[in-house]
Amino acid sequence: MKKSFLSGMLAVMMAATLLAGCGGSAGQKETKAPETQAAETQAATEAAQSEGGAEAAEGLVGQDEGAVLNIHGWNEEFKSRVAAYYPGYEEVDANTGKIGNVTVKWTITPSTDNAYQNELDSSLPNNAAAAADDKVDMFVCDADYVVKYVQSEYTASIADLGIDEAELANQYQYTIDVGTDQNGTIKGLSWQACPGVLIYNRAIAKEVLGSDDPATVQEAVKDWDAFNATAAKLKEAGYTITSGADDLYRVFNDNASQPCVVDGKIVIDDQTKAWVDEAKMLVDGGMTNTYSLWGDEWNKGFFPNTENKPFCYFGPAWLIDFCMAADDASSIAANGGWGAVEGPMGFSWGGTWILGAADTDNPTLVGDIMRVLTTNDETMKQIVVDVNDFANNKPVMNEMAQDPNYSDAVLGGQNALPMFCAGAEKISKSNLTIYDQGYTEEIQKAMKNYFEGNATYEEALEQFYKAMIEKYPELTH
Amino acid sequence: MNRSKVARYNRWGYIFLIPFFVVFVIFQLIPLASTIYNSFFENYRSGLSQIGPNFIGLQNYKTLLSNGDLLQYTKNTMIMWILGFVPQIIVSLLLGAWFSDPSLRLKCQRFFKTVIYLPNLIMASAFSMLFFTLFSDSGPINSILLQTGILSTRYAFMSHIWSVRGLVAMMNFIMWFGNTTILLMAGMMGIDPSLYEAAQVDGASATKIFFRITLPLLRPILIYVLITSLIGGLQMFDVPQILTNGSGDPMRSSMTLIMYLNKHLYSKNFGMAGALSVILFIITAFLSILVFRATGERESGRRHRDRVR
Hints:
The structure holds 2 protein chains of 2 kinds.
Chain A: H1 2-50, E1 68-73, H2 77-85, E2 89-93, E3 96-99, E4 102-108, H3 115-123, E5 136-142, H4 146-150, H5 173-178, E6 188-190, E7 195-201, H6 202-209, H7 214-220, H8 224-236, E8 240-242, H9 249-253, E9 261-262, E10 265-266, H10 270-284, H11 296-299, E11 310-315, H12 317-323, E12 338-341, E13 347-348, E14 352-356, H13 363-375, H14 377-387, H15 394-401, H16 417-426, H17 436-451, H18 457-471
Parallel strand pairs in A: 1-4, 1-5, 8-11
Antiparallel strand pairs in A: 2-3, 3-4, 5-14, 6-14, 7-11, 7-12, 7-13, 9-10
Helix pairs in contact in A: 17-18
Chain B: H1 2-38, E1 41-46, E2 49-55, H2 59-66, H3 69-100, H4 109-117, H5 124-134, H6 140-147, H7 161-189, H8 193-201, H9 206-234, H10 238-243, H11 257-266, H12 270-308
Antiparallel strand pairs in B: 1-2
């Protein structure tokens, strides 16, 4: 009898632990509800109090909108822009901020291997059904996949966010075209334009080319023949022309005449093939390395070091300001050791577009952040002065290009804006597809095998197709 | 009266088994069935739109088996497993024999047993990240080799097929030899010491004792180690995944079966991933049954012999 009582107790206890999980969460939910209610009422009273107050985010908080602004991104760039240039933004901790009474929540997912896109793809379709505080309100996209979201039903038209098309008059047309969907509705706005230049190491230019003057350097890299001759000269002196073979990818591929996928078929454009040939030639000749973009070895060229001494990088203004470690006192950038020239071929690379999510519960605030960051002349000028980004504002940029008081410290006091202005006018992004990020990552990965001699071009191409179809099962080749 | 009491008391046994079966059904049986079910469908995400699920019969299996990738990745997996398992079993046998030999009177046994097990406590991803940094083009290993004059130029460990495979095998070896040593040691300590004494009295050398007494009697444990290591090897994922950044390069020569499975999960291709999982399940089941049979027959054979005797 005693025994059966004991085992009965044990069984009951076990069942209790088994169910404890469910019980616990239910209890939590119940207790949580009054808390949120209290928080809401508090927010409401606070909002009512501050309604008269002028400064709190320009009176936007007084309107009856969501208490939480969820912003998704793939790196810290947009966050730093909002933190620095949106009036009333206060940082709370690494992933939260405050604008008036609205809490700003940042969700940062790295973009490698489509991780950021997968994150958006799973959260955006549920946005309409999500609780108000969990809704994605706005997010940023790189040029490689922005069209996917612009053309989807999950993004809001800027008209619905309170922005008039006339306000965009100063922007570069290509940035508006990229942000416009198939029906002509504008949805995405960018604060930057991304014409690319060749960014060279002044010390190496002096040593090998005899001068670090942009005119001399441009003469040495004015076309691919001159570029290759200079590469050979640099090799003699113990340098490489670029950090890796992938550096040249954007230069060639941005000039491709067709999209990377046409009617569901993966396309290798002549320019893409030209990149493979040029890069292979440079790697075989010992004139460049095979370091992958963004890797530790690739980045080494941003600092004085003995292992990786590249002469130049190719990139737009954001590469100079955001990637070259100018905030690190030991970097070449911090000591003004770079210069910029047009290089052998004009190109553009990347760019960040801000998109408002459909079903956002903070449309006014989202619209206002977009407006302040992408159309306000003062803000955009300040961005250029502070961090040397190239702002998406034609008159301001043209004016600053002529301004003798403006110079880029990273570029050794050079004013590269005239070059960027000229480049920005020529950009066309009509070949963008939803597959660009996967295409770029996979072709660079696959061709690395060819460059390093582990495969023939055909084998590497075959592996590229294989990897693409794994990522996008609907494609053929 | 008494019998019904026993029966009533027995039902507690079943009650105590319930938690296991609940967990088993929810986390093992249902996923297993749904994986098999999913493998017959075309079902993936293309960006923001969902394709399928459309029933396509055995099409996924056909695609998988016809393009030759599966064979290549199976080969890679087995090569890397064997490269790691052979040194692992040799070193473990040696260490196990030393640790369990009372005549050697090894000092600090507990300390060394702990130390050799320690690598297994490190997270595999952290471990391979460490190796990635150590063996990178400008990493410390390259610097040491250059400065000591062994190499004249840097060796790109991550760009050569056999160095990548070798590194994966080495990591698996370092992580698992301690575990195997402890298993084998347990087996060795279970051998009747009088057998050793008898052999010593007969004048057998230490090597002879090892090969004639220890090894044959260790067979069941060895087979257990082999099968668990084989199943673990087939599921090799984290080490090569992190070391090659998911690419399995050069030319996917270090891509394992599970890394391939992971590629399909990235596009949420449940159909193909399901089919691949089912094939993996069949391979693993086949190998397990093979070994189970091999050991089982010996057991029943011995029992049979005992009965005759």
